[in-house]
Amino acid sequence: MLIENVKEVEKHIQAACERAGRSRDEVKLIAVSKTKPVTDIEEVLSTGILDYGENKVQELADKYEILPKNIHWHMIGHLQRNKVKYLMGKVAMIHSVDSLRLAEQIEHEAAKADTVVNILIEVNVAGEESKFGTTCEAAIELVRNVALMPHLKIKGLMTIAPFTENPEENRVYFRKLRQLSVDIKSKNIDNVDMDELSMGMTGDYEVAIEEGATMVRVGTGIFGERNYQI
Ligand SMILES: *Cc1c(COP(=O)(O)O)cnc(C)c1O
Fold first, then answer.
1. Using CA atoms, how far apart are residues 120 and 82, in angstroms rounded to an integer?
2. Of all helices (H) and strands (E), which one includes residue 120?
3. What secondary structure letter does DSSP report for 165?
4. Is residue 74 within 8 Å of residue 53, measured between CB atoms?
5. Ligand 1: nearest atom to the Cα of 226
6. pLDDT per residue over 143-195, tens digit each?
7. Would you say 99 and 80 are in contact if contact means Cβ atoms under 8 Å apart?
8. What is residue 227's predicted lDDT score, i.e. its pLDDT?
């Protein structure tokens, strides 16, 4: 069943790439496995997908221990500073860096662990009250400050678009994130890459790809509905 889901999502990704005149290998599919059991991940692993997204530190660390070490784990959820240390050595990328204080904590732990952590700056493009992320206006200043940290490597930007039934409504936000990344790139800040745009979820990843996403985070579309009661 999950293998069928992956095929379906893959078909939609390819179609979106074609519509946008992009090559399929410009877009990485991150399977968002939060709340889902290891057996489900093993099934999806059999399709060759190696990138998985989690939003809780404990859950990511537990799954890291159990599952094959060639998996690339992506921390996509809001991150508390006191939990940062448990991610060192386990994550390929932290998508949710939205404050200087959080960045400083990651820098501190990464230095201790003698490692460099790849990060994205999370931007609340739509300005939703309920969402984490820096504002577009504050993003450049945050990038400038984080760029000075030797154990952090900025790879790009991430956003969580509003929940909507109509993905077309989110096109404007994806476009805005892409424009922000172009603006930041043009400033040629040392130690800053703007190659990655992590945007698009189950409801809107095709529109996100049309607007330049390089990473889409698909949970429900691959693993099915989540049951938070369990
Ligand atoms: C849960 C989650 C997703 C996946 O959401 P779906 O709608 O199930 O695809 C993507 N990004 C973030 C940050 C999430 O927390």
1. 19
2. strand 117-122
3. S
4. yes
5. 8
6. 999 999 999 999 999 999 999 999 999 999 999 999 999 999 999 999 999 99
7. no
8. 85
3-state helix, strand, coil in the chain (%, to 5): 45, 20, 35
- The CB density around residue 144, as the number of other CB atoms within 10 Å, is 14
Pocket test for ligand 1, best of 217, 220, 223, 227 (most atoms within 8 A of CB): 217
125 lines ligand 1 (CB under 6 A): no
Question: Which two three-digit tokens encode residue 66?
Answer: 């159990």
The verdict on the CB of residue 74 being under 6 Å from ligand 1 is no
| Cα(131)–Cα(114) distance, integer angstroms | 32
CA distance 172 to 192: 25
Q: Pick from 190, 196, 206: which is nearest to 51 by CA?
A: 196
Return d(Cα 98, Cα 134) in angstroms, integer: 5
Cβ atoms of 138 and 127 closer than 8 Å: no
In sequence order, the 6+-apart residues with CB closer than 8 A to the CB of 45 are 67, 68, 71
- pTM (predicted TM-score): 0.97
Beta carbons of 89 and 112 less than 8 angstroms apart:
no
